[in-house]
Amino acid sequence: MRYWQRYDRKYKMWNIKKIYYFIRSKSKKLGNPFNRKSNRGRPYSLSPYEYASSFILFTIFDFSLRDDEFISDLLFGKHIDHSTFGKAFAKISYIYIKKLLILIRNEINNLIQEKPILIADSTGVIVDRMYFQTLNKCKIRKRRFYDKLSVLVEYYPANRTITISDADSLFSSDSLSAKIMLSEIETNADKFFADAGYDSNELFEKLLMNKIVPIVRIKKRSGKLKKFRKVVREMFDDEEYKKYRSVIEGVFGGLENRRLLFTRYRKKSMRMKHIIAMAIVHNISTYMTISLFILIKSTNPFKSQCLNTESMISNNNK
């Protein structure tokens, strides 16, 4: 099957409703992201976990709140006002979105039986119509405002697959965010790749305690190196670093091609959640591709078996 045929089959197999049902099944497993304070007032148009699913779905297609209102009739069979979506999205917690990211990552890991390689990096996320003033050569200039997306990815070399195991948008420090992400996941990886921004004695200590070899470029600083930084410098393999470190740039390139390293939310709490939702989009796209290859490999001349395989994958998503 040629590339364009695989691409066409992927999006015929995964239409907008099937993607929504897949996300909804994972959100339902996590439970409601928020609850009603009382029984007074009108009932919710959707259940809380359905609002969480729609938040991720609308991130995939880069919909605004007005777009959400426009498509609600087709997707949910009822008209839901854009302000209703906005209020519901604001109630979803940042931790809930992170748990959803890890849950989908675990779903992918169950399909791939291979030891991964950990790679960490960060990139900027443009905030729409938000600027700050700077003084440059005695002139006041406007600069774009950026948020930060830090990711910890698992790369499977034999399968050439990249999944985002965890993400962070709260901390500006690369090493601190990596340390927090490592404590939030379980992994059987034994190597960790990152650039000089992750040169931290505390991070190296955590990695070595977890029996993960840090292959990180050490910064040139004056004075003596601390214990773990000295160990990491002696273990550094430049050839292996160049081979695997750049793999993570494909994640950011894919998100940028989807116009996802961009947020139009003004409120900081919403921007932080939206940035984690961008990482979930990558994992959903990876799951879609893997499920297609499972279908192709299991296809034989008998059409009935092909149809049974498609129904099996769709049943797993419900």
Question: Can you walk me through this structure?
Answer:
This protein is an alpha/beta fold and 318 residues long. The chain has 2 domains: 3-95 and 281-316, no CATH class; 114-263. Helix content is 53%, strand content 18%. The chain is built from 13 helices and 6 strands. The chain has helices spanning 3-13, 16-30, 48-60, 65-76, 82-91, 94-111, 174-184, 201-209, 227-235, 238-244, 249-257, 268-297, 303-316; strands at 117-136, 139-156, 161-168, 191-194, 213-216, 262-263. Strands 1, 2, 3, 4, 5 and 6 form a 6-stranded mixed beta sheet that branches. Helix 2 (16-30) crosses helix 3 (48-60), helix 3 (48-60) crosses helix 12 and helix 6 runs parallel beside helix 12 (268-297). The protein is globular, with a radius of gyration of 22 Å.
Describe what is shown at a glance.
This protein has 318 residues and is of the alpha/beta class.
Topology of helices and strands:
Elements: H1 3-13, H2 16-30, H3 48-60, H4 65-76, H5 82-91, H6 94-111, E1 117-136, E2 139-156, E3 161-168, H7 174-184, E4 191-194, H8 201-209, E5 213-216, H9 227-235, H10 238-244, H11 249-257, E6 262-263, H12 268-297, H13 303-316
Parallel strand pairs: 1-4, 1-6, 4-5
Antiparallel strand pairs: 1-2, 2-3
Helix pairs in contact: 2-3, 3-12, 4-5, 6-12, 7-8, 8-9
